[in-house]
Amino acid sequence: MIKKKVLLLLLLFTFLVFHLNCVAQKKNKSGFWKALNTADNTDTTTALIHYEDYVYKPNIKTVQLHNESFDMSQPILSLGAEGKLKLSFDDLDADYKNYSFTIIHCNANWEPSDLSAAEYIDGFQSNMIIDYHYSLNTLQKYTHYNVVFPDDATHITKSGNYILKVFLDGNADNVILTKRFMVYQDKISIQGKVGAASIISDRNFKQEVDFTIDHSGYDIADPFGDLHVVITQNNHWDNAKTTLKPSIVKDNELVYDYDVDNVFTGGNEFRNFDIKSIRYHSERIASVKTDSGLITVNLLPDEKRTFKKYSTLPDLNGNYAIKIQEGTNSEIEAEYCYVHFFLQYPEILTDANFYVFGAYNGWRCAPENLMKYNVKNFGYECTMYLKQGYYNYEYVYIKNGTTTADETLVEGMHYETENDYTIYVYHRQQGTFYDQLIGVKHLNTVAK
Predict the structure, then answer these.
(1) Does pLDDT of 42 surpass 50?
(2) pLDDT at 32 over 60
């Protein structure tokens, strides 16, 4: 009898242990999925922000920031002038959300400056985004948001680099997107030119940007330590020249004339495709299919241009424009399409990755524009969800362990390529704690 009771107790104890283990595993599994969801960008807050063009939520698409009057302009303001910038984006959740924005002053290296918001903003430091419209007659429903700034309630009082930060429900840590823009105040004069590289071996492939700064009437005590000069190519920052120092200093003139430090690869004219219409196919479109409410656009296969002769082709230098042909309001009537890219390539790279590259995603190499190898068709492919319009793009690769995109492997490089260059001159006056943007100069390889 005693043995039976002991056996029964042992069975009950075993069952209890098993039940507790199952409960613990269920809790762990729940915690695991919660962790996965958090990692999958469905968390409600974002502790870390990127001081660059960046989208933090998968439902946010087609983020644009430009001059109010021209949708392909750089986001640059002149301090004290009447110009305004326009931010727009789509929310594919297609509902109304309480979005707000604020601006953050940064130094020349795009890091938060030591200024408090009250020192560079006169007025409200955050504002709600109240201009929104629902998409009209589209398969993909979305809500389109617009905001124009600065306005009567908010004035920017300092020049320099800025981050525009959009957040949700009044929680500044719940970041939706960040965009870079600049405010300058002309205090110097910049003269420059772009030509073929001076070094003979680079002359057919690279472009050199030489320039001079005239600071007559404006004191620069230490031009080697107080100035920070940046040159960008086609308005992206991943290959910017940021360590330039004057090669010659004479009176009120600073000369920047080098053979290496101010040289860029010429690259090639950008590829393009036109999906302003989904009824009529442009020359780069292989097919357009609509199935189960989804629009798929297959582009014609692309080839390497590494060793092909340079050909002049008009382009937008990597930019894009949201436009439709069948409709009146591109902002809310444009469809979203799955655009399929294919690059013919005979081998799989083991030490690098290919990306489709352009302004459409802030010149970033991210998972959404990463290309995968198709063994059956001998090439790299990628599909992206893009709004109707006209797009420039190119194929770049990033070697493992590096961060700079390189277009030369697929696109080639030519000194004749038409490119835009922008020179930014920042100055930290002695005794101050922020970088002023005291001059901006736009150059083009063709325009004189």
Answers:
(1) no
(2) no
- Domains of the chain, first to last: 54-184 (2.60.40.1930), 189-266+418-444 (2.60.40), 271-411 (no CATH)
Mean pLDDT of 48-58: 94
In the numeric block, the tokens 């031009």 are attached to 223
pLDDT value of position 10: 45
Predicted confidence band of residue 447 (pLDDT cuts 50, 70, 90): confident
pLDDT tens digit string along 381-401? 999 999 999 999 999 999 998
Q: Look at residue 256 and tell me whether its pLDDT is greater than 60.
A: yes
The identity of residue 438, as a single letter, is I
* CA–CA separation, 177 and 50 (whole Å): 9
- How, if at all, do strands 420-427 and 436-444 pair? antiparallel
This prediction has a pTM of 0.87
Cα–Cα dist 202/260, whole Å? 10
